[in-house]
Amino acid sequence: MEELLAKATQGVDMDAPDAFVHIFINLMAMIPWTALFWWNLVFVAVGALLGWWRGKLLSGVIWALVLGPIGWIVVLLTPKSAKPPPLPRSR
């Protein structure tokens, strides 16, 4: 924990009024954004596949985008959408 605090406060004047902003920027620089982006794309792709299978493509994409893999469970637990009734025959 001390190593993380040392990295977050590196080069920050703790008495400065904007010390919080500099610490926040240092913490955000330590996050692996590229890996998070690709994992999110995988989650959305699987959510879209599950949503398509359940007849709710947009719902699958949105739940996966918001909740990640937990959104898959939400999509799987919702009832399958019923097919619309057939159209009447034209004369």
TrEMBL record:
Specify the species. Answer: Dyella nitratireducens
- Could you tell me what this protein is called? Uncharacterized protein
Q: What residue intervals traverse the membrane?
A: 20-50, 57-77
Keywords linked to the UniProt accession = Membrane, Transmembrane, Transmembrane helix
